[in-house]
Amino acid sequence: MKKVTFVLAAAGLMSLAACNGEKPAENAVENAVENVEDAAANLDAAAENVTENVAADAANVADNAANVVENAANVVENATNAQ
After folding, report:
1. What does the radius of gyration of the chain's CA atoms come to, in whole angstroms?
2. What's the predicted TM-score (pTM) here?
3. Domain assignment present for 60
4. Which pLDDT does position 68 carry in this prediction?
């Protein structure tokens, strides 16, 4: 019975040792790598948002310019019709 208890205790200690195999330095390195990867993903998302916003703004500027031209043409037409 003592041998079985000893074997079970040894197996339990070995399993605990296997579960806690990583060192704090390894954990710190893994966390640092994950942080850098997250920062890169955030930068990519920000760059994509800026690109989309610039394209949308350019389209709005073009629409506004077309509206200004159309309004000017209407002013000229209305002035001509008023005479």
Report:
1. 35
2. 0.46
3. yes
4. 92
Q: Determine, yes or no, domain membership for 15.
A: no
Find the angle CA(66)-CA(70)-CA(72) to the nearest 5 degrees: 115
pLDDT at 10 over 60: yes
Look up the domain containing 44 and give its range: 31-83
28-66 pLDDT, tens per residue? 888 888 888 888 888 888 888 888 888 888 888 999 999
Q: Let me know if residue 7 belongs to a domain.
A: no
Dist. CA 70–CA 64, nearest whole Å:
10
Residue indicated by tokens 């208890």: 5
Helical (H) or strand (E) element with 70: helix 24-82
Q: What's the structural domain count of the chain?
A: 1
Q: What angle do CA 34, 35, 39 make, to 5 degrees?
A: 115
